[in-house]
Amino acid sequence: MSTQFEIQQPVIAGGWRVLAPFRFREYRLLIAAVSLSIFAEGMWAVVMALQVIELTNDPTALSLVATCLAAGLVAFVLVGGLAADRLSLRAIIIIVEVVNTAVATAVAVLGFLGALQIWHMALAAGALGVAAAFFFPAYSAILPRILPAEQLLAANGVEGVVRPVFQRAVGPAVAGLVIGATFPALGASMVAALFGVGLVLLLATRLPTKPVAIAGDRPQLMRDLKDGFAFMVKTPWLLWTLLFASVFVLVVLGPIEVLLPFVVQDRFEHGEQTYGFVLAFFGLGSALGALGVSSRPMPRRYLTTMLVCWGAGSIPLIALGMTSSFAVMALASFIVGLTDGAGMVIWSTLLQRRVPPEMLGRVSSLDFFVSLAFMPVSFAIVGPLSKVVSMQAIFLAAGVVPVVLALVAIWAARMHRDEVAHPLR
């Protein structure tokens, strides 16, 4: 199955595998813009948490704001997938960047004026979630149209390095240092500036503007969505991976995104800076995991490798809930990031290689929708839950449950047979 469209430049042999996509101008501009946006997203995670803590030191309030972001993403991600298969991919990602810039600017201005309230943060988080719902499917669909199929693993590896380095390491660390020394509104203004520069780079691109042709003479959105859902249900490796991801998100994401800031604040003297550095170690591990996988051919047992990374890699979460040692917390965060980054590069490439190109936007959106369906639930319940259940017990469940889920998914989907029957090396 070919996923290559309108690629004008020849592929040059030789060189380090992960750098091959940079031979293409449009990819260079795209990944530069995406890198700045990811940096901004990494800063926003800390800005959001610390701004809410400054306004009201209550985990329930942070649960509300995080839930709005997650709800915006989940509610619109299917629409984003349909848009990616029907509309101009370049227009989608540019509009997303415009929204991101405007939202971050509004939060910064309100913060400087001293007029920012929790409902402003909730509204901003929801808008950023909606924007992300349109970005993810469009970005996934555009890569196979500007790069040869054999370079998709490398391109996903680059994004797999950039995302943790900037979103989970540099971004949070910079935000923690800036806000610790000043105030959250300054961090929000830096987020807006990064989004703005990314927008300028996207405007300079000449990305594909026409969607892949879809069978049928008229757009039928419900039929398109139904076809994507049917493909997911009848494809065991896809279905069981998404079922795994759904429960994984339910038990893991809430503790990390909502409770970890309070754990760090309670256990360390300089909570803002320490929280940023804990996330930075996660990002460093994720970058190294992505780089390691993308620098080599696709693993022969790619499905099993991916699920083992995500399942066993969650075990160190137990330490995050129990330790008061920064070294132990940093090491645990690093290991979780390492396995997460390795698994995500395999997963992104797997979708782009084994999903028909005319369905990639819809299937990518279904991927995000099914795997993130429980994200708002996780965010919403973990704050109140922490008032009746200990932090240690919550992080213990987050570390153990994914191991069992991964084993069930590998067995139920017969992944060991599927990956042998469909090699991707």
TrEMBL record:
Its main location: membrane. The keyword Transmembrane applies. It comes from the Bacteria. Residues 21-417 form the Major facilitator superfamily (MFS) profile domain. CDD domains: MFS_MefA_like. SUPFAM superfamilies: MFS general substrate transporter. It is found in: Cell membrane. Gene3D superfamilies: MFS general substrate transporter like domains (1.20.1250.20). It is a multi-pass membrane protein. One of its GO terms (cellular component) is plasma membrane. GO terms for molecular function: transmembrane transporter activity. The keyword Transmembrane helix applies. The chain crosses the membrane at residues 29-50, 62-84, 91-112, 118-144, 189-208, 229-254, 274-293, 302-320, 326-351, 363-382, 394-413. Keywords: Cell membrane, Membrane, Transmembrane, Transmembrane helix. This is Major facilitator superfamily protein [Kribbella flavida DSM].
